[in-house]
Amino acid sequence: MKNASQYLWWHTGIIYQIYPRSYQDSNADGIGDLRGIIERLDYLQWLGVNVIWLSPVYPSPMADFGYDISDYTGIHPLFGTMADFDELLDVIHLRGMKLILDFVPNHTSDEHPWFMESRSSRDNLKRDWYIWKDPGDDGSVPNNWLSVFGGSAWEWDEHTRQYYYHGFLKEQPDLNWRNPEVQDAMLEVMRFWLEKGVDGFRVDVLWHLIKDKQYPDNPPNPDYQAHMPTYDQLLPVYSTDQPEVHDIISRMRSLLDSYDDRLMIGEIYLPIQKLMLYYGVDNKGAHLPFNFQLIDLPWNAQKIARAVDEYEAALPPGGWPNWVLGNHDRPRISTRVGIEQARIAAMLLLTLRGTPTIYYGDELGMRDVPIPFEEIQDPQGLNMPDKNLSRDPARTPMQWDCGANGGFSSVRPWLRVDEAFERENVQVEREDPHSMLSLYRRLIELRQKEQSLITGAYEPVECNEQTIAYIRRESGHLAFFVLLNLSNGSACFDNENRRINGFVNIATSPHLEGRIISGKINLNANEGIIVRLDQ
Ligand code: NOJ
């Protein structure tokens, strides 16, 4: 157990993910930018979040909207200049907030100078910086590995007559992380940003970095169904999650540790037991291997409660938990579970033990916006058109006010704004005490000031088909009881023998607030309460 002073900013903070293209356009080109984010810092401070994670803002041909980087130490002119970045970092720090950058080490853009060199000839000094393989005798691909974005992961290069590997788009060739020169070059990139003073990184697809040396075929996935992405036809047992990845992570971590209190978050979609290895031996791996249980699981009380218990039990000693409800790759929470359950989800996210990450706009209840086929821009959507996999619906412009384009831009935005923006936006919801935004703000405020919610233990109380109940308790502080009805039917919580006494501090339904709790607790459909327990 740590004492309060041993907790660092990223244990106690609340992370807010900004997708910069869609946050605020300051120069009337329909695309969000860094100066736009600077203009909106007042809002973020008012909301109460204190760690900002930016999706990539580096130079990029934008084949994958910035996750295809052609210069790791620059800023794309669409987003502004390095001076704008420096100013953003300064003003964030002046407000006592932190800035996390997206770091994309698994692959570069095919327009990165390293790849242009590598593909120029077989004996180029950077040839081995990427993964090149000979064709089979009949010209076939080196193995059956698939790209996450559809089709084979191998692309033929006619000029040098070899295939290169790309786990994502063919415009995103994978770096060869077994090559020490690649490791050194990428650590230099991290150092560049650390020297500037960024507070850490969210490391893209961390579990993809190292592949099996022999490149064996991946086995078929027995659970594959036609509606699933084509990538899921195989189990990526040889192309991801290799043991040697942990050596790379510890190199990254040592670099971070040579600075003060910098954070490494890893993007890792793996089952709980495998995920835990990414904390590293003696917690010298990623500080926060992203925990996507709340994104991946069906919205079911029992399944979620079980996952929370399993996750809590699996954490290594000293490992700090974290929870995520949404991101730029997945459908928004209010579309996935409905707007009423999205309020429950907010309550869950902000009362579980561990660092929460909020995806921009979820605090307004923003929904996936239907994007007509001819307007789809996301390569994942375009490459697998019959599977409804476009990520554009979850990346639409932030809804600020009732003005043109929801206050996002004075010109037509790169993606359409939700038609409901005049009712659901920051300006309107700020004034409405019962809005999603007001609920988020109050939950954040409570979490930031109550030690039991910040660092207290998680004590499961009960869970059934409908409800989840738990207590958060830090010794010497007031404890909180959380009861969430994840169903659309009314539910009763039998409080006999449990001695849960207190008053309702925050409820999804305002009339419950202030109510004294002692006997049975009855909840309507989709209701949740946070009870401040009597001492
Ligand atoms: C994960 C990122 O979140 C996603 O947006 C991107 O397309 C892939 N990695 C490839 O970089």
Describe the structure.
The protein has 535 residues and is of the alpha/beta class. The protein folds into two domains: 9-106 and 180-444, Glycosidases (TIM Barrel, Alpha-Beta Barrel), CATH 3.20.20; 457-533, Sandwich (Immunoglobulin-like), CATH 2.60.40. It has helices at 9-12, 34-39, 41-47, 82-94, 113-118, 180-196, 245-257, 272-276, 293-296, 301-314, 333-337, 339-349, 379-383, 426-431, 436-449, 451-455, and strands spanning 15-18, 51-54, 98-103, 132-133, 154-157, 162-165, 200-203, 263-266, 288-289, 322-324, 355-359, 457-463, 467-473, 480-485, 491-493, 502-507, 516-517, 521-523, 528-533. The strands form four sheets. It has an eight-stranded parallel sheet. Helix 6 (180-196) packs parallel to helix 7 (245-257). Residues 64, 67, 104, 168, 204-205, 267, 328-329 line the site of 1-deoxynojirimycin. 1-deoxynojirimycin binds next to loops.
Strands, helices and their partners?
Blueprint: H1 9-12, E1 15-18, H2 34-39, H3 41-47, E2 51-54, H4 82-94, E3 98-103, H5 113-118, E4 132-133, E5 154-157, E6 162-165, H6 180-196, E7 200-203, H7 245-257, E8 263-266, H8 272-276, E9 288-289, H9 293-296, H10 301-314, E10 322-324, H11 333-337, H12 339-349, E11 355-359, H13 379-383, H14 426-431, H15 436-449, H16 451-455, E12 457-463, E13 467-473, E14 480-485, E15 491-493, E16 502-507, E17 516-517, E18 521-523, E19 528-533
Parallel strand pairs: 1-2, 1-11, 2-3, 3-7, 7-8, 8-9, 10-11
Antiparallel strand pairs: 4-6, 5-6, 12-13, 13-14, 14-19, 15-18, 16-17, 16-19
Helix pairs in contact: 6-7
Residues 64, 67, 104, 168, 204-205, 267, 328-329 line the site of 1-deoxynojirimycin.
